[in-house]
Specification:
The chain contains 25 helices and no strands. With about 675 residues, the chain is mostly helical. The protein folds into 3 domains: about 1-175 and about 360-520, no CATH class; about 175-230 and about 235-345, Four Helix Bundle (Hemerythrin (Met), subunit A) (Up-down Bundle); about 530-680, no CATH class. Keywords: Cell membrane, Membrane, Transmembrane, Transmembrane helix, Transport.
Length: about 675
């Protein structure tokens, strides 16, 4: 409640600008909808409200395009359904439930947040078209079906276009600005984490707090990188730079693990030269995090790379492991320089030459099935009530809560239940505003557009102030969208002035959201242990497939990004220790190490050792899975020994053989340690 009062009574200047822009967008949407005599102009307002979640111009344009696509697809499906099942309500409702379940399930499988709105609009528009025709079955005809579908699609598109226009022209916020800020934050967090890993006094908790923050920041960067493409001629280049920065940051996380774990678990293997280099890296990372300009940061990184080469040249009697670690340190600096240059491309007009794939969403059919089932059950309950009673108010129970079920399926359960409770509070506030403020005033007015806007501006302004604050966003949605449904602004508001109709709609929405609350608790999807097992299994499969992929390192990073975030999130809910995210980071590093090995061997031997490399890769992947189960990892040790024997017959120098042997030693230590940690955790 304190957050609500702060949002309304003490808003920031940005929140006030956001609310003013939102009111203008809805006023414009209502005017255009009324000008074209659309049947239900308030759906244009709802379309505009959905576009207010993120006001940055690129995001608004991208979200608007997705909403329009979803609306058109949903309208087309609604027409198809009515042409075939308009005389069979049960079949029509069953087909619509399956359609909603399909859209909901697919929305759970995508990484891009704005794409979720396309699925939500496809479900909502189809529901609107079908239900508004089925309410009057005796009047149903091909012309009526088409007119209703056209009206619903037009209303939502009008709202989307008006909101996008206002957002772009009035106090425009650019997603590129947010992207630069997030990128700088990500780089600083990464540099701090690199320093923490190399700090002999660094704590386990501080390392994992840093990892969690970096992964969440990378996810936000990934979400915004697609929208920045819509911001002028430099947008596509900035999108590529953001993707490259995200991808290479994951490479850094993989590489720094090697030094941190060596220092914590096998400090006796660190030579004086290696210790001096690691201390230098620790100090330099701290200086880079404090640097203000790109030039200074880039200079520090270049200087560090030169010093690392000097440390390697000055090293005497280094072990195979030590030689390999000097190479890894130089690779780490090279990746860091690429990240810094990518950030420079975000802040300037330089176009990056390199490109990298976006982080790919982890597609788990079980999650999609649970999400789709939840939405289908939500709709089916309302459909059964409507078929049994014929009450038109039940239609609201079949539309709005289902849309919320699609939009919020990505949230963790604790956050989700809190959001739904706040939406319910918002619905209550919306009822009070509609019944005791808006409707009495509008009933006495002349119905002119100007008076309509004057009366509605206040409640919408309050709702938008709440939407502008992340903590009160669910309250804002609960106020703004139901308020539009209760008041039904337009030229003919006769039905809205019937208090029993307004209260019935309010009860239907309240009951629907309450039912959705319990459905989220009952249909929770696969357990965290099952999800974790499937994430590890997919990583195992990627490790096997990795050598056969083009641009394999970037492909693997893109696949592992969302996976790492999910593993970190699930593990925090499952247990206090964080051994599984350590193992996942080990898996990320194993992929990069294996690619270096394949590249080195193929450059020397061509295809002569393909069978041996394939066997070694399978053993590496199996050793990773064995570590997850806390089992013996000797399967990799045996394969590594066999490979080294075969390697001695090829044209490899003694130094190269020592580097490969050092890589195998480090991998073996990592797998064995991970298995021991997970075994001790289980006991």
């Amino acid at each position: 409640m304190q957050a609500l009062l702060n949002s309304i009574l003490f808003p920031t200047s940005d929140a006030i600008k956001f609310a003013i822009k939102g009111v203008l967008a809805m006023a414009l949407a209502l005017y255009v909808a009324m000008f074209f005599n659309l049947d239900r102009p308030y759906w244009a307002l709802i379309g505009a409200i959905f576009l207010q979640m993120r006001p940055e111009s690129g995001l608004v344009i991208e979200k608007g395009l997705y909403q329009i696509i979803g609306t058109v697809v949903g309208g087309a499906f609604g027409i198809f359904l009515l042409n075939n099942f308009s005389s069979q309500p049960t079949l029509a409702m069953s087909s619509l439930a399956l359609w909603l379940g399909l859209n909901s399930g697919l929305s759970a499988l995508v990484r891009r947040v704005n794409l979720v709105y396309a699925f939500a609009m496809a479900g909502m528009t189809a529901s609107l078209v079908v239900l508004l025709v089925m309410v009057q079955p005796t009047q149903a005809s091909s012309a009526m079906i088409f007119d209703i579908a056209q009206a619903r699609v037009s209303e939502i598109i009008v709202g989307v276009v008006c909101a996008a226009l206002v957002s772009t022209l009035i106090w425009p916020n650019k997603v590129s600005t947010v992207l630069r800020t997030n990128a700088r934050t990500t780089i600083n967090m990464t540099l701090d984490y690199l320093a923490v890993e190399l700090d002999s006094n660094g704590s386990h908790d501080s390392r994992h707090q840093s990892i969690d923050g970096i992964l969440e920041s990378l996810a936000a960067l990934n979400d915004d990188s697609s929208a920045v493409r819509f911001e002028g001629p430099h947008g596509p280049g900035r999108s590529r730079a953001s993707n490259l920065l995200t991808n290479k940051t994951l490479s850094l996380l993989a590489l720094i693990q090697i030094f941190g774990r060596l220092q914590r678990n096998h400090s006796e293997l660190i030579s004086p030269s290696m210790r001096a280099m690691m201390d230098d890296m620790h100090d330099t990372f701290g200086q880079m995090a404090s640097a203000i300009t790109f030039t200074e940061t880039h200079r520090l990184a270049q200087a560090l790379r030169r010093r690392q080469s000097q440390y390697a040249n000055d090293a005497v009697n280094e072990s195979a492991l030590g030689l390999r670690l000097f190479k890894i340190a130089q690779e780490l600096s090279a990746e860091l320089i690429v990240i810094i240059k990518s950030y420079d491309a975000l802040t300037s007009h330089r176009q990056p030459r390199l490109n990298a794939p976006r982080i790919k969403s982890h597609h788990d059919p079980l999650v999609g099935l649970a999400t789709g089932l939840r939405s289908a059950v939500m709709f089916s309950v309302g459909a059964v009530l409507w078929l049994a009673t014929g009450a038109s108010a039940v239609l609201m129970m079949m539309i709005l809560p289902v849309v919320f079920s699609i939009m919020m399926a990505r949230f963790p359960l604790t956050l989700l239940t809190l959001a739904l409770r706040r939406i319910l509070i918002g619905v209550v506030i919306a009822v009070v505003l509609a019944v005791f403020y808006a409707l009495p005033l509008l009933a006495q007015s002349s119905g002119d557009y100007e008076l309509l806007i004057l009366v509605l501006a206040g409640p919408y302004f309050i709702g938008l102030l709440c939407i502008a604050n992340r903590a009160t966003l669910p309250l804002g949605l609960g106020i703004s969208i139901p308020f539009s449904i209760f008041v039904m602004p337009g030229p003919n508001m006769t039905r809205a002035f019937q208090i029993d109709s307004t209260v019935s709609n309010a009860l239907a929405i309240f009951v629907g959201v309450s039912l959705l609350y319990w459905l989220f608790k009952l249909i929770t999807g696969p357990s965290l242990h099952i999800m974790m097992h499937r994430l590890i299994k997919n990583t195992y499969q990627d490790l096997i497939d990795l050598p056969n992929r083009s641009k394999a390192d970037m492909w693997f990073n893109a696949r592992m990004g969302d996976r790492l975030l999910r593993i970190a999130t699930y593990e925090k809910s499952m247990m206090e220790s964080r051994n599984l995210i350590d193992l996942a980071l080990t898996g990320l590093n194993l992929g990069h190490v294996s690619l270096h090995l394949h590249s080195l061997v193929r450059s020397r031997c061509g295809d002569n050792l393909e069978n041996e490399l394939h066997t070694l890769q399978q053993a590496l992947a199996q050793g990773f899975v064995n570590s997850y189960h806390g089992q013996n990892t000797q399967v990799f040790d045996q394969a590594a020994q066999s490979f080294l024997k075969r390697l001695s017959n090829e044209s490899f120098s003694e130094e190269q053989q020592e580097l490969i042997r050092g890589s195998f030693e480090r991998i073996s230590m990592s797998l064995e340690r991970s298995a021991q940690m997970i075994t001790s955790q289980a006991t």
